[in-house]
Write a structure and sequence with these properties.
Low-confidence stretches: 1-7, 36-40
Order of helices and strands: HHHHHH
Number of strands: 0
Number of domains: 2
CATH class of the largest domain: Mainly Alpha
Largest sheet: none
CATH architecture of the largest domain: Orthogonal Bundle
CATH topology of the largest domain: Cytochrome Bc1 Complex, Chain D, domain 2
Helix content: 40-55%
Number of helices: 6
Structural class: mainly alpha
Distance between the termini: 29 Å
Length: 144
Amino acid sequence: MECLRKIRWSELLPAATPISPAAALISAAALLASCQVSSIHSEPSPVDVYKEDPVAVSRGGAIFRSVCSGYCHQTTPTTGDALFLFDCSWKHGGSDQEIFQTITTGVPDTRMIGFADNLPEGYADTWRIIAWLRTRSQCDDLNP
């Protein structure tokens, strides 16, 4: 990544450009901020990768039906304490990372246990489940 390499001051400011130390610090801070933003958005979520792989999505669905839906979550709206996961309402956070966190660590004082990396293929299967949920979502915004 371009932002992770060492950058010389001469690359940022031509030698003939007079600049105060305060302006140099502001420039450096702006550069760092732009690097952090670009690196955050430049790498796809594992979900984005798995959503493009029909085998991975199918595996995520099979695991959801056998583990998640087999005990708590349903694939159609029903009453009960297990949330319906295909609408746009995410009680514990709807970003890919928040869903991952919920699945891996659970939700205190609920039946939602944390699976950690205990699915057959560890965290990869957790991401596959999220990819499957995203492909079945009834929400226009797939990352609420």
